[in-house]
Amino acid sequence: MSRKKIIALVVVVLFLWGIFALGGYLWKNNGDKIETLLTVIALIKSQYYQPVSTEKLMNGAIKGMVEGLDDPYSVYLDPEQFKHLNEQITGAFGGVGLIVTMEEKHIVVVKPIPNTPAAKAGIKAGDIIVKVAGRDTKGMDLDTAVSLMRGPVGTKVSVGILRPGEKETREFTLVRETITIPTVESKMLDDKIGYLALSQFTENSPEAVRKALGDLKRKGMKGLIFDLRDNPGGELTAAVEIADLFIPKGKTIVYVDYRNQPDEEEKANLPALGLPMVVLVNGGSASASEIVAGALKDWQVAVLVGEKTFGKGVVQSIFKLPGNAGLKLTVARYLTPKKHDINKKGIEPDIVVKQPAGSKEDLQLLKAKEILAKKVK
Q: Does the keyword section mention DNA damage (predicted)?
C-alpha cells in the first residue's frame, strides 16, 4: 500500500474514532435525552396525523439545538438560507432592497437601499416588519425573515409593516429585483472636507473604500468624515482591512478572544491616511462598524460624533454542513485595542449629538463639519 493511501486510511480511522468517542460520551452522560429524542421522532413518524419527512424533523431538531444557546447571532441555516447568506456576503442577490436588524425581538428596517422596490414603495428606516410572505415574524430569527424576502427576480413577496406611532399594519406587495448593495458613497462637502459613507462590510467593501479615498484625495481632501451610522456590520476581514487604511502601522486594530484557542491580534500593516477624521455613529452602528470605530477612538485617530453604538461585540463563523446547509455560530468576542469589551454596552461617542426623528437637518453631520473645519484650516 502506498504512503498516501496509508495516511488517508489513518485519517479516516481517526475521524471515525472521534465520532464514536463523542457518541459514547453523549450516550453515557445524556442517554435518557437521546432516547427521548429518538422516541419523539418515532412517535411523530408513526402517529402524527399527517406525513412528515425525516429531513424536516432532523432540521427542526438541529435548529432547536442552536436556538437552545439563547444567542440571537447563532443560527442554523437550511440550504436555501445558507445560499442567501453567501449572496449577502458577496454583495448581490435577488430581493426587495431592505437592510434590517433585530431590536428587542422585532425585525426593524435599518434603511431601504435607494432605487429598490422597498424604497420606491415608501418603506422607511425604523419600520417594524411584522409579516413576510404571509408569515408572522414574532419569534422569527433575522436570517429566516431575510431569506423569505429574497427569491427569484420578478417574483412577488408581501411585507407587512408597522410604523412607529401607528396602530394599523401597512401591507406592501413588492416585486423582487437583482439587488446590488452600494456599500460606499463618497463626495466632497466643500473644497477641503471629504465625506465617505459605508452601509455594510462585504467582500467588496475594502477595495471600494480604497478607491473612494483615492478619488477624494485627488479632489483636494484635507479632512474626512467617515459615516458608519446604521451600518449593521458584516465581515470581520473587511473591517480589519478598512481600519488598516486609517490606523498607524503596527498598531492593534482588534483582539479576537476565543475560548479554546489562542487569541488573535490584528495589526495595521499599511501607512495611515494621516488626515483629520470624524466618524459618525449611532444605535444602528454594530459589529464590524464598532470594530473600526473602537480602534479609531482608542488610538485617537478620529473624533466620534453621534450616539452610542449598538453593542455587538461577538464574532460569528460560518460553517458549511452536509447537504449544503450551514451554521452561523458565535465563536469569539472581540476587544478594542485598549481591551474594551463593548458587547451589550456599545461605544460612547466623544461628542454626543442626538438626531431628532423627522428633523430636516442632519445635526450630526453639521457637527462633524464644524469640527473638521477647525482642523483643516
A: no
Q: Residue 136: helix, strand or coil by DSSP?
A: strand
Same domain, 202 and 249: yes
Integer angstrom CA distances of residue 44 from 31, 39, 47, 51, 65: 20, 9, 5, 9, 18
> In this structure, is residue 59 part of a structural domain?
no
- Counting the structural domains of the chain, the total is 3
User: Domain check: are 191 and 170 in the same one?
Assistant: no
Is the pTM higher than 0.85? Answer: no
Asked whether the beta carbons of 252 and 265 are under 8 A apart, the reply is yes
Given the residues 297, 312, 328, 367, the one annotated as active site: 312
Residue 225 in grid coordinates: 468624515
Which pLDDT score is estimated for 9?
A: 44
- Residue of 143, 298, 328, 367 marked catalytic: 298
Distance CA 70, CA 74 (A): 8
Cβ-Cβ contacts under 8 Å for 373 (sequence gap 6 or more) = 193
357 class by beta-carbon count within 10 Å (0-12 exposed, 13-18 middle, 19+ buried): exposed
Q: How far is CA 148 from CA 41, 95, 125, 140, in A?
A: 27, 9, 19, 11
Let me know how many helices (H) and strands (E) the chain has, helices first.
Answer: 9, 19
Which domain CATH number covers 148? 2.30.42.10
Distance CA 99, CA 110 (A): 5
Instruction: List Cβ neighbours of 71 (8 Å cut-off, separation of 6 or more).
Output: 330
Across the beta sheet with 303-306, what order do the strands follow?
184-188, 193-198, 223-227, 277-281, 303-306, 351-352
Does one domain contain both 272 and 217?
Answer: yes
Helix (H, G, I), strand (E, B) or coil at 329: strand
Give me 316's grid cell: 460569528
Annotated catalytic residue: which of 285, 287, 297, 367? 287
Mean pLDDT by 10 residues, the chain (377 residues): 44 42 56 77 88 87 88 87 73 80 85 90 93 90 85 91 91 90 88 94 92 96 96 91 97 93 92 96 94 97 97 90 89 94 95 87 96 90
| 298 has catalytic annotation | yes
